[in-house]
Model the fold of this input.
Amino acid sequence: SQQGEEDPQALSIQEGENATMNCSYKTSINNLQWYRQNSGRGLVHLILIRSNEREKHSGRLRVTLDTSKKSSSLLITASRAADTASYFCATVFQGAQKLVFGQGTRLTINP
Amino acid sequence: ETGVTQTPRHLVMGMTNKKSLKCEQHLGHNAMYWYKQSAKKPLELMFVYNFKEQTENNSVPSRFSPECPNSSHLFLHLHTLQPEDSALYLCASSQETVLSPLHFGNGTRLTVT
Done:
């Protein structure tokens, strides 16, 4: 399977703590994207990182990409209850025109 | 508001019914997608339209029939569905191909009885 795999599958932390989610993939990519999905809603795009980039920031979000290890991580700092959601990585593999999603990490922020 | 509107939000249909899902995007994007999201499975890409032309059919059964009359509207016509087709059906759009971020609608929750 080409899809990315998120780790952990579920994560529960206290409000204010940092949350780190990881994504691994198997073949070379054009870009990797992170999305958030609140229960029963559509996915919301968070960050896109290209294969020649190593790190990107957006507010409290920090994404890193290590193409040598074929992995990416999403860090959410100073978590809030509203960050409770499922987080998905999605990859566009070189030579493909499809965005392939992983199974996601279910993040719960406890007040 | 995401800029991508899907109707209906919920749909219950019998296996012999015919129904259609509708998606409209107000973002001026050129590409539109149908995804299926089932419990405990990754999102499955079903169809891709780029400038109204279908560019991807991910081995979807013929009981699902897409239609893209223009770059702002996308339909998914359903007929003779099976209970295992029950899922959340998500529409998305992007400026170009998948090298651009996708903007999703809130989906249609489909239950086949």
Notes: Chain A touches chain B at residues 3, 30-31, 33, 35, 40-45, 48, 88, 92, 97-104 (CB under 8 Å). The first strand of chain A starts at residue 5 and ends at 7. Chain A has a mean pLDDT of 92. The two ends of chain A are 37 Å apart (CA to CA).
